[in-house]
Amino acid sequence: MYPWYCPNTGTPVPGGFSYEQAAYLLSRLAETNKEIIGFDLVEVAPGDDDWDGNVGARMLFHMCGVFAKSQKMKVGQKIKFNR
To answer: What family classification does the UniProt entry report for this protein (predicted)?
Structure first.
């Protein structure tokens, strides 16, 4: 993502995705019917305020929704983990 979305990241990427672009790409991925087996959110670093944490939490929330959609889950349905 652009550095101003998470200014405290240890690895800013010039020309990275905007929040909206990343969310759009994840949503399109969920529509492909490919099996999503996991996801990771990295480089959300603490700063002087809650800005980075808020952006990270919003992206994580969206990623969980994409994962649930890819699993064809219904609202309120509990996740069953295979162990």
So the answer is: Belongs to the arginase family.
